[in-house]
Amino acid sequence: MAPNPQCAALAAAKDKKGMSYAQIAQQIGKPEQHVIDICTGAATPTTDEFNALARVLGITSAPPHDAAHVTKAA
């Protein structure tokens, strides 16, 4: 069983879409483990990766400005 995302909005969007990490990874062109690492907080996404995840999962609201939602330069 895959770990749950660190972000509650991400977890809810993932559940609502019914997507696996593998499906998300395929749609954003990244390895599945990298997507898992981003979603669980083990890796920090670039702004482009963050935006791609939001797009695939249908998240349209801006993320909160806290440690769980930090991005790094591309």
TrEMBL record:
Q: Name one Pfam family in it.
A: HTH_3
As recorded in UniProt, coiled-coil segments are none
Pinpoint the HTH cro/C1-type domain residues: 9-64
Spell out the SMART domains in the cross-references.
HTH_XRE (SM00530)
- SUPFAM superfamilies from the UniProt entry: lambda repressor-like DNA-binding domains
Q: Which CDD domains match?
A: HTH_XRE
Against InterPro entries, the record matches this protein to: Cro/C1-type_HTH (IPR001387), Lambda_DNA-bd_dom_sf (IPR010982)
Any one GO molecular-function label of the UniProt entry: DNA binding
Matching entries from Gene3D superfamilies are given as: lambda repressor-like DNA-binding domains
Family recorded in the similarity comment: Belongs to the MBF1 family.
Q: What is this protein called?
A: HTH cro/C1-type domain-containing protein
Its taxonomic placement starts with: Eukaryota, Fungi, Dikarya, Basidiomycota, Agaricomycotina
